[in-house]
UniProtKB/TrEMBL annotation:
Organism phylogeny: Bacteria, Bacillati, Actinomycetota, Actinomycetes, Frankiales
SUPFAM superfamilies in the cross-refs: MOP-like, P-loop containing nucleoside triphosphate hydrolases
ABC transporter domain boundaries: 4-234
GO molecular function: ABC-type transporter activity; ATP binding; ATP hydrolysis activity
GO cellular component, one term: ATP-binding cassette (ABC) transporter complex, substrate-binding subunit-containing
Protein name per Swiss-Prot or TrEMBL: ABC transporter
Matches recorded under InterPro entries: AAA+_ATPase, ABC_transporter-like_ATP-bd, ABC_transporter-like_CS, ABC_transpr_MalK-like, ABC_transpr_MalK/UgpC-like, Mo/tungstate-bd_C_term_dom, NA-bd_OB-fold, OB_MalK-like
Classification via PANTHER family: MALTODEXTRIN IMPORT ATP-BINDING PROTEIN MSMX (PTHR43875), OSMOPROTECTIVE COMPOUNDS UPTAKE ATP-BINDING PROTEIN GGTA (PTHR43875:SF1)
Organism: Parafrankia soli
BP-aspect Gene Ontology terms: carbohydrate transport
Superkingdom assignment: Bacteria
Length: 416
């Protein structure tokens, strides 16, 4: 049993909570990725598990045992950092066995563990080289190897791929995921990169401002985001956020966006109880828009296209939505965040993140940014107006005040 549990873990510096009542269970053998923007508390959470930081309140359990006050060395966990921290004067073999030597493991056992780990990691041919004669990806694997030979109860990994170039990152992330699955060692992995989280994890936990937003499978997070923040953080490009209002219309629930009123189909409206004029944020995934009207009810959005990116596999059209301006603090926060991450939005360099005025970043007051992902065959040019359709059943609806989803699915566990 090597589960890891955060039980109501809080850490405050002065009075500011860096982690706020974090409760999370990482199952035995599970690969859980903790993801969130810079400063959300991910590293802090990892360091608390490792024993490098003590929580202000709450407990950490490893394999069911309370280790909150146990010294790091006695927790039987192995950490892999973003800086590989290899000893430059030692060969790969020495680097890998060093920890075992210190722990008093005998020579034969050390040799056999290093040989097995090197085999798993494809390092056998490199055992006699020194770190300077290795590529970034190979060094990263040596750092993994050092963790592996210890046969720990769990791996703790803090952005282990951040020093690698984009191509290598894709390869090594697949490698880490494969190795973790073949070993079945419980792994808590921290990254700010949602693509890394979505491709590697069994489950993803999303952290924002020290608070857990949602924990679920990649599919849960993408298709059933618990709140506006998760919708805007997960997915590439991230979801567009459109202001709207729920109204009652002839005993049905309708969504009003700008001056259009879309009567929601019964299955889409299930569970919605609009008091007159509930303000909502409508989440629209860039890949859910169509340029031809779909057969069923659909939301129509007009976008003034300012930039077209032809990526080969798809074409991204970025522009400003003609319909309405964004309101609501949750939408502002999510927009600011999504816009702050180049990788998420593909935004032009130098463009600032969203400000506090409720404007979409880079947009004029009263307009909002919108990104559509279209088939590469679509005829679209910058400086044109694009009419887009979104089928009613592809819309995500969030409370404009709290940011929480209005259609909670049982699997979408929202902590916020
Ligand atoms: N010793 C400290 N004193 C005060 N504040 C701190 C201290 N250490 C970290 N913080 C703050 O705690 C917050 C969370 O930091 P943490 O390193 O856990 O974030 P993170 O999500 O891992 O971010 P990143 O992706 O940038 O590493 C940050 O706002 C940081 O400034």
């Amino acid at each position: 049993m090597s589960t890891i549990e955060f039980c109501d873990v809080t850490l405050t510096y002065d009075v500011r909570p860096i982690l706020d009542n974090l409760s999370l269970v990482i199952g035995d053998g599970e690969f859980l990725v903790l993801v969130g923007p810079s400063g959300s508390g991910k590293t802090t959470a990892l360091r608390i598990v490792a024993g490098l930081l003590a929580p202000t309140a709450g407990q950490v359990l490893v394999g069911g045992r309370d280790v909150t006050r146990v010294a790091p060395a006695d927790r039987d966990l192995a950490m892999v950092f973003q800086s590989y921290a290899l000893y430059p004067h030692m060969t790969v073999r020495r680097n890998m066995e060093f920890g075992l030597k210190l722990a008093g493991v005998d020579r034969r056992e050390r040799d056999s563990r290093v040989a097995a780990a090197a085999e798993t990691l494809g390092l056998t041919e490199l055992l006699d080289r020194r770190p300077r004669a290795l590529s970034g990806g190979q060094r990263q694997r040596v750092a993994m190897g050092r963790a592996l030979v210890r046969q720990p109860r769990a791996f703790l990994m803090d952005e282990p791929l951040s020093n690698l170039d984009a191509k290598l990152r894709v390869r090594v992330r697949a490698e880490i995921a494969r190795i973790q699955r073949s070993l079945g060692t419980t792994t808590l992995y921290v990254t700010h990169d949602q693509t890394e989280a979505m491709t590697m994890a069994d489950r993803v936990a999303v952290l924002h401002d020290g608070r857990l937003q949602q924990v679920g499978t990649p599919d849960d997070l993408f298709n059933r985001p618990a709140n506006v923040f998760v919708a805007a953080f997960i997915g590439s490009p991230p979801a567009n956020l459109v202001p709207g209002r729920l109204v009652s219309e002839d005993h049905a629930v309708a969504l009003r966006v700008g001056d259009q009123t879309l009567v929601l189909p019964v299955d889409v409206a299930a569970g919605l109880t609009p008091s007159a004029g509930t303000e909502v944020i409508v989440g629209v995934r860039p890949h859910d828009v169509q340029i031809e009207p779909p057969p069923g009810p659909a939301l129509i959005l007009d976008v003034d296209v300012g930039l077209v990116e032809r990526l080969g596999t798809e074409t991204l059209a970025h522009g400003e939505m003609v319909t309405g301006a964004l309101t609501g603090s949750a939408a502002r926060a999510a927009i600011a965040l999504a816009a702050g991450d180049d990788e998420l939005t593909g935004r032009e360099p130098g463009q600032e993140a969203g400000d506090e005025s409720g404007r979409a970043p880079g947009g004029r007051p009263g307009t909002s940014r919108f990104t559509a992902a279209l088939s590469p065959r679509t005829d679209v040019t910058a400086a044109g107006r694009l009419r887009l359709y979104v089928a009613a059943d592809r819309l995500h609806l969030f409370d404009a005040d709290t940011g929480a989803t209005l259609r909670p699915a049982p699997a979408a566990l929202a902590a916020a």
